C-alpha cells in the first residue's frame, strides 16, 4: 500500500455519460491539475505538463477507449517513470475497470481516491500492457488491454450499429453482440462471417498454419467479461492468445468451454489454438479492434507484444 505525491485528472469530454450530465466531479476535483483534452495532440501536451508537475497518480474519467489513448501517450510524456492509474469508469463497456477495479465514476469515487492517496492506503495492481505496432506506418505503438480480429470486429460493429444506438450499453451490449455473432455463425451456415478472413499468424517467431481465421484474440488480462476465458494458458509470456480457424467447428461447445474456463481435448484438432506468448505477428487485410475501437492494419500487418507494465491504483 502506498500514497501518491500528486494526483492529475484526465476527463474525456466525449464520454456518453459525461455528455448526459452524469458523474460530475464538483468539489472533489478542487485543487487538482485537470484537463479534458479532445485530441491526441492535446492529450500528449497535457500529460507532458502533468509530468512536469510531478503527477504520480493519474485519475482517468472515461472508458476503455480513453484508457487506450492515455496508455498510448504515456511513454512519450513520462518516459520510464509512468504514473499509477486510477479508473473513474464512465464508458460503454469498462472492461479494464471490471478487471482492475474502480473507486466509482464520479465525485464520491474521486473523493475516496484522494483520501486513500493522502493516507497511504492505495491498493495497487501491476499489469502488463499490450502494445500494437503497425509496421510501415510512421507512428508510435498503440497500447491497450484487449485485441480482437475477425468475428470480434463483427461483434463490435453489431454493438455500435444495432445496440448502442438503442441505448443498450455495458454488459448487456457485450452479451447481446456476442450472442448475435455466435448465433449467426451457428444457424446461418452460409453466412459470410463463418468464412473468416485471410490471416497469417506467427507466435514467438513460430508460424501457425496458413488459412482463413474466424477469430483472433490477444490480451495480457487474467480475466474477461461475462465469465468467459477462452485461453489455454500453455506456454510462456505475458500475452494470452486465441486463434480459431474458419469456418468454426463446434462453436457452441467451444463457447461453453470458454464459459467454464477450460480447454477441451478435442479443440486443437477442431481448429482452436491457444496459449501464452511474448510476441505475435499478424498479416491481415481486415480491420481489428483494440479496446473498443476499430482500426485498419498497417501495410506490413501487426506486431503485438507486452514489453512494459502499468500500475493501477484503487482505494
From TrEMBL:
Domain DAGKc: from-to ranges: 40-136
Highest rank taxon of the organism: Bacteria
Listed GO MF terms: kinase activity
Pfam families given in the database record: DAGK_cat
Protein name: DAGKc domain-containing protein
Source species: Roseomonas gilardii
Amino acid at each position: 500500500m502506498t500514497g501518491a505525491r500528486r494526483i492529475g485528472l484526465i476527463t474525456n469530454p466525449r464520454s456518453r455519460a459525461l455528455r448526459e450530465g452524469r458523474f460530475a466531479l464538483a468539489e472533489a476535483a478542487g485543487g487538482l491539475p485537470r484537463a479534458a483534452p479532445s485530441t491526441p495532440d492535446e492529450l500528449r501536451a497535457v500529460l507532458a505538463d502533468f509530468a512536469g508537475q510531478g503527477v504520480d497518480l493519474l485519475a482517468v474519467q472515461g472508458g476503455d477507449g480513453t484508457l487506450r489513448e492515455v496508455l498510448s501517450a504515456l511513454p512519450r510524456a513520462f518516459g520510464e517513470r509512468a504514473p499509477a492509474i486510477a479508473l473513474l469508469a464512465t464508458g460503454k463497456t469498462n472492461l479494464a475497470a471490471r478487471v482492475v477495479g474502480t473507486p466509482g465514476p464520479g465525485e464520491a469515487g474521486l473523493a475516496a481516491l484522494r483520501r486513500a492517496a493522502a493516507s497511504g492506503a492505495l491498493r495497487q495492481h501491476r499489469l502488463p500492457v499490450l502494445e500494437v505496432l503497425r509496421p510501415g506506418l510512421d507512428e508510435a505503438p498503440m497500447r491497450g488491454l484487449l485485441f480482437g480480429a475477425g468475428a470480434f470486429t463483427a461483434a463490435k460493429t453489431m454493438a455500435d450499429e444495432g445496440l448502442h444506438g438503442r441505448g443498450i450499453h455495458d454488459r448487456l451490449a457485450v452479451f447481446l453482440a456476442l450472442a448475435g455473432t455466435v448465433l449467426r455463425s451457428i444457424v446461418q451456415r452460409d453466412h459470410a462471417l463463418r468464412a473468416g478472413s485471410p490471416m497469417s499468424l506467427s507466435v514467438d517467431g513460430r508460424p501457425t498454419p496458413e488459412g482463413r481465421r474466424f477469430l483472433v484474440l490477444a490480451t495480457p488480462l487474467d480475466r474477461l467479461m461475462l465469465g468467459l476465458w477462452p485461453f489455454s494458458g500453455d506456454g510462456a509470456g505475458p500475452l494470452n492468445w486465441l486463434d480459431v480457424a474458419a469456418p468454426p467447428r463446434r462453436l457452441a461447445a467451444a463457447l461453453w468451454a470458454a464459459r467454464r474456463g477450460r480447454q477441451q481435448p478435442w479443440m486443437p484438432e477442431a481448429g482452436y489454438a491457444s496459449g501464452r506468448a511474448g510476441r505475435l505477428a499478424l498479416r491481415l487485410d481486415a480491420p481489428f479492434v483494440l479496446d473498443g475501437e476499430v482500426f485498419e492494419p498497417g501495410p506490413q500487418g501487426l506486431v503485438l507484444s507486452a514489453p512494459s507494465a502499468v500500475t493501477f491504483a484503487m482505494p
